[in-house]
Recover the amino acids of this structure.
C-alpha cells in the first residue's frame, strides 16, 4: 500500500517579504548506473515505474523522490525521518556533495548546480557549514587545528583567523581544550568541536546531519538546547536532520517529516503534533506531550462559546475573576493557571480579548487533538 | 465449526510437504550417484570434485585396477553426500540448483574431459597427440630473439638516456657512501645509539651497539657501510617513485587496472632474469644493482601508499569537501597524513626487500656484504659465508629497528 499522499507544499504561511535562504525544487536522487538512471528517469518522474520496480528490475535506488521545501532566513528547519528515508542524501544536495538527478537547489536565490568548481568551493568555505553524525574530525590534528581547518582551507592565516577560532571554541564551551587531540575527548566534546569548526567559518547556513544521534540522552538534550540558543543568538539558518521527533520539536522552528524519500508533512511542531496529515505521522506524534510548544492562540475558542459572558468579552471586558493571558502563552502555563482558578482563561492581544481557553480546550489539547 | 476447514487445510498441506521432503532426499542421493549428468538438480559447486574423481576412476579402469576404481568412485560420492549434509538444509541447495541456469557448459566439459582421458590412454596416433602438448621450438626461439633484438636496439639508441641515469644514480650513491665512510666509527656509534635510545630506550641501545660491534669486530665495517649506502640510495629512488605512483593509483582506477599486473610481475619475476638486461643498459657496477633492487623492492611501497589513501574514511573526505578543500588540500591535509602509518609500513618493507637483494646485486658489482657472501660461496668457505650472512642480518636488524614502522603512534 503506497498511500502516502503527495504533500503539496503549503506556501500560505510564508513570509513573502523574506526570500528563502535554501530552496529545494522537486529534487530527485536516483542511485545506480548512470545510463540506467538516465533511461528510467523519465518513467520515474511520470510515475510509470514505482520505487520498488526501479530497484528490482533496474537495480536503482530512489533515495530522494521529488522533494521541495524552503528554509527561511534565521530559521531552524528540521527534517525528521527513519533511517534510510533519504535524509542524509537530501541534505548533501544543499552543498552539492551529491548532485541531484533531477530538480534544482537554490541558495540565496541562486541555483547551485550552475556553479563551477571554484565558485562551489567558495560557497562551501564561506556560506555553508556542515556538521556530521560521525563528527569527522582529523585525528592527527588538535582541537584548535581542527577548528582552524575551514579558515586554513580558504587561505586565511594571522591574528583574525586565530581570534575566530578561539571565539568559536569558547562559544561551544571548549576554551582551554585547544591542544588536545580528538581521541582524548568524549563524544559530546568531539561533536562540539565539529560545531565549532562550522562556526569558525562563520557560515550563514549550517547543515547538521544527525549531529547528536550518537550521544547519550543527557548530553544530547544539553547540546540540543545549546544549539538552539546558539543558532538564535547568532542568527544562523540551520537545516537540521534527525531521526528523533522529540529532538525535532525541541530544536526546530518548522519540521518536515520524511518517508521513503518523500516529504509527507511540513509544519510547525504544534501543527505536526496536533494535526498529523496521515496515520504515519500520527504514529510518530503519539505520546508527544504538546504542553511545551502549543500556545493559547492555537487552542482558544471564540468568546461566543460562552454565551453568558459573550457580550462582555466581545467588548474586551474580562469578567470578574477570570485569569488573563497573552496569545503566545504556552499550554504548560495555561494548565498551571487553570489549576489555580475555576474560571476560564481570557486570551488577550494588545488589550483586546481574542478568545477563551477553558478546561475543555486544555484537555483536548493535552489529549493531542486539534480543536474541532 | 468455523475452524475446522482451516485445520484440515493445515493438515493436508503439512502431510504432502513431509512426504515430498523424504522423496527429495532419496532423489538427491540418486543425483549424487549420477553426478554431473543430472546437473539440473545439482549445485554446481561439486563439479570439480566430480571431474577429478571420475577422471581418476576412468584412468584406473583403463589400467585394469577395477577395485581401486570402485573405491575412488564411491569415496567421491560419499564425500559429496557428506558435504551436502554439512552444508545445511537440503532445501537451500536445491533452491540454488534450480535457480541456476541449466549448466550445459559444465556438463559438456565433464563429458569432454572423461572422453579425452579415455582416448589419451589408448594406443594409436590420437593418443600420442593428446598426451603431449604440441609445442613449437620455433615460436620460442623467435620470441627470445626478438627480445634480444629489442634490448640491443635500446642499448645502442638509448645510450644517452642510460648514461644520464647512470650518472645521477652514481652521484646519489657516491654522496651517501662518502657521508657514511667519512664519519669515524665512534660518530656512527654515537648517532645510531642516540636514535635507538630515543626510539626504544636502553634495551634497543644495547641491541644496536651489539650489532654495530659485530660488524666492526669481524671486519665488515666498510662493506656494511657500502651496503647501507646502496640500500639507502635504493630507498630514495623507491620513495621518489613509489609514493607518487601510489597516490596516482589510489586516485585513478584505470591506472590501477594497468599497474596491478605490472607490480605483480615486478615481484614475481626472478631477479636474475633482469640482471642481464640491466647490465646491458647500465654496464656492470653499482647503478644496475641499484636498478635491480628498486624493481624488486618498489611494489610494496606503491601498494601500501595506495591502500593507505584508499582507507581514508569517507566521512573525513566529506568533511574536507564540505569545508571547501581543493583536491591538493585534500591530499596534503587529510589523505597523506592519515595514510602515513601505512606508508611507513611500506617503507619498512621496502628496506627489508632491498637488503634481501644485497647478494643478488653483488653478482653484478653491487659490492658490500653481498660480495663477501658470494666470495665465500665460490670458495666453499662455510664459516666465512655464515659470518657474512650474519652481518647482513645485523644490518637488517639495525634498519628495521631504526627506520622501522615505528611502534609508537603519533596521534
Ligand atoms: N551512494 C549510494 N549508493 C546507493 N544507494 C545509496 C547511496 N547512499 C544512500 N543510498 C541509499 O539511499 C537510501 C537513503 O539513504 P540515506 O540518505 O543515507 O538515509 P538516512 O540518512 O535517512 O538514513 C538508502 O536506501 C540507502 O541505501
Ligand atoms: Mg543518515
Amino acid at each position: 500500500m503506497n498511500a502516502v499522499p503527495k504533500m503539496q507544499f503549503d506556501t500560505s504561511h510564508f513570509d513573502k517579504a523574506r526570500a528563502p535562504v535554501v530552496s529545494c525544487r522537486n529534487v530527485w536522487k536516483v542511485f545506480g548506473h548512470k545510463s540506467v538512471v538516465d533511461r528510467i528517469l523519465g518513467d520515474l518522474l511520470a510515475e510509470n515505474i514505482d520505487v520498488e520496480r526501479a530497484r528490482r528490475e533496474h537495480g536503482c535506488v530512489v533515495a530522494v523522490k521529488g522533494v521541495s521545501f524552503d528554509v527561511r532566513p534565521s530559521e531552524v528547519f528540521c527534517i525528521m525521518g527513519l533511517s534510510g528515508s533519504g535524509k542524509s542524501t537530501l541534505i548533501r544536495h544543499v552543498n552539492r556533495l551529491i548532485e541531484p538527478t533531477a530538480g534544482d537547489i537554490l541558495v540565496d536565490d541562486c541555483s547551485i548546480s550552475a556553479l563551477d568548481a571554484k565558485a562551489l568551493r567558495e560557497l562551501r568555505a564561506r556560506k555553508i557549514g556542515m556538521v556530521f553524525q560521525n563528527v569527522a574530525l582529523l585525528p592527527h590534528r588538535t582541537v584548535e587545528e581542527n577548528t582552524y581547518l575551514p579558515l586554513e582551507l580558504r587561505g586565511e592565516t594571522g591574528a583574525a583567523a586565530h581570534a575566530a577560532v578561539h571565539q568559536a571554541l569558547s562559544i561551544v564551551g571548549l576554551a582551554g581544550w585547544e591542544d588536545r587531540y580528538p581521541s582524548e575527548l568524549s563524544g559530546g566534546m568531539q561533536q562540539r568541536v565539529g560545531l565549532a569548526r562550522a562556526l569558525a567559518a562563520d557560515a550563514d547556513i549550517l547543515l547538521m546531519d544527525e549531529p547528536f544521534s550518537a550521544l547519550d540522552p543527557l548530553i544530547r538534550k544539553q547540546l540540543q538546547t545549546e544549539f538552539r540558543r546558539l543558532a538564535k543568538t547568532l542568527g544562523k539558518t540551520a537545516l537540521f536532520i534527525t531521526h528523533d521527533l522529540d529532538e525535532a520539536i525541541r530544536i526546530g522552528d518548522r519540521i518536515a517529516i520524511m518517508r521513503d524519500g518523500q516529504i509527507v508533512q511540513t509544519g510547525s511542531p504544534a501543527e505536526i503534533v496536533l494535526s498529523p496529515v496521515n496515520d504515519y505521522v500520527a504514529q510518530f506524534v503519539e505520546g508527544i506531550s504538546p504542553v511545551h510548544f502549543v500556545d493559547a492562540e492555537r487552542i482558544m475558542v471564540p468568546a461566543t462559546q460562552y454565551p453568558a459572558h459573550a457580550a462582555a468579552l466581545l467588548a474586551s471586558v474580562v469578567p470578574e475573576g477570570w485569569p488573563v493571558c497573552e496569545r503566545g502563552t504556552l499550554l504548560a502555563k495555561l494548565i498551571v493557571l487553570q489549576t489555580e482558578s475555576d474560571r476560564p482563561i481570557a486570551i488577550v492581544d494588545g488589550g483586546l480579548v481574542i478568545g477563551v481557553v477553558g478546561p475543555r480546550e486544555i484537555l483536548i489539547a493535552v489529549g493531542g487533538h486539534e480543536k474541532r | 465449526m468455523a475452524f475446522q476447514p482451516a485445520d484440515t487445510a493445515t493438515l493436508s498441506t503439512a502431510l504432502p510437504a513431509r512426504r515430498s521432503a523424504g522423496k527429495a532426499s532419496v532423489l538427491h542421493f540418486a543425483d549424487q550417484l549420477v553426478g554431473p549428468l543430472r546437473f539440473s538438480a545439482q549445485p554446481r559447486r561439486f563439479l570439480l570434485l566430480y571431474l577429478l574423481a571420475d577422471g581418476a576412476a576412468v584412468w584406473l579402469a583403463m589400467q585394469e585396477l577395477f577395485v581401486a576404481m570402485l573405491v575412488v568412485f564411491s569415496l567421491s560420492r560419499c564425500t559429496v553426500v557428506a558435504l551436502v549434509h554439512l552444508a545445511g538444509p537440503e532445501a537451500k541447495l536445491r533452491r540454488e540448483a534450480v535457480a541456476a541456469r541449466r549448466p550445459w557448459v559444465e556438463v559438456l566439459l565433464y563429458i569432454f574431459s572423461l572422453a579425452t582421458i579415455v582416448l589419451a590412454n589408448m594406443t594409436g596416433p590420437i593418443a600420442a597427440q593428446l598426451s603431449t602438448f604440441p609445442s613449437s621450438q620455433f615460436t620460442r626461439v623467435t620470441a627470445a630473439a626478438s627480445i634480444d633484438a629489442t634490448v640491443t636496439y635500446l642499448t645502442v639508441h638509448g645510450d644517452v638516456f642510460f648514461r644520464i641515469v647512470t650518472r645521477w644514480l652514481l652521484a646519489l650513491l657516491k654522496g651517501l657512501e662518502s657521508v657514511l665512510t667519512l664519519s669515524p666509527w665512534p660518530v656512527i656509534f654515537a648517532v645510531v645509539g642516540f636514535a635507538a635510545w630515543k626510539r626504544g630506550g636502553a634495551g634497543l641501545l644495547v641491541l644496536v651497539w651489539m650489532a654495530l660491534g659485530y660488524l666492526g669486530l669481524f671486519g665488515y665495517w666498510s662493506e656494511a657501510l657500502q651496503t647501507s649506502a646502496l640500500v639507502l640510495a635504493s630507498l630514495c629512488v623507491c620513495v621518489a617513485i613509489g609514493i607518487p605512483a601510489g597516490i596516482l593509483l589510489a586516485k585513478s582506477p584505470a591506472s590501477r587496472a594497468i599497474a596491478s599486473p605490472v607490480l605483480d610481475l615486478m615481484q614475481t619475476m626472478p631477479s636474475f632474469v633482469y640482471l642481464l638486461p640491466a647490465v646491458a643498459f647500465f654496464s656492470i657496477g653499482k647503478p644496475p644493482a641499484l636498478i635491480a633492487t628498486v624493481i624488486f623492492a618498489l611494489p610494496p611501497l606503491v601498494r601500501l601508499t595506495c591502500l593507505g589513501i584508499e582507507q581514508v574514511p569517507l566521512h573525513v573526505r566529506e568533511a574536507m569537501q564540505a569545508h571547501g578543500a581543493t583536491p591538493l588540500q585534500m591530499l596534503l591535509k587529510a589523505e597523506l597524513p592519515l595514510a602515513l602509518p601505512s606508508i611507513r609500513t611500506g617503507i619498512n618493507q621496502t628496506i627489508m626487500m632491498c637488503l634481501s637483494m644485497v647478494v643478488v646485486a653483488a653478482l653484478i658489482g653491487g659490492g658490500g656484504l653481498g660480495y663477501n657472501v658470494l666470495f665465500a660461496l665460490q670458495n666453499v668457505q662455510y664459516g666465512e659465508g655464515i659470518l657474512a650472512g650474519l652481518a647482513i642480518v645485523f644490518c637488517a636488524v639495525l634498519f628495521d629497528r631504526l627506520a622501522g614502522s615505528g611502534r609508537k603512534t603519533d596521534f
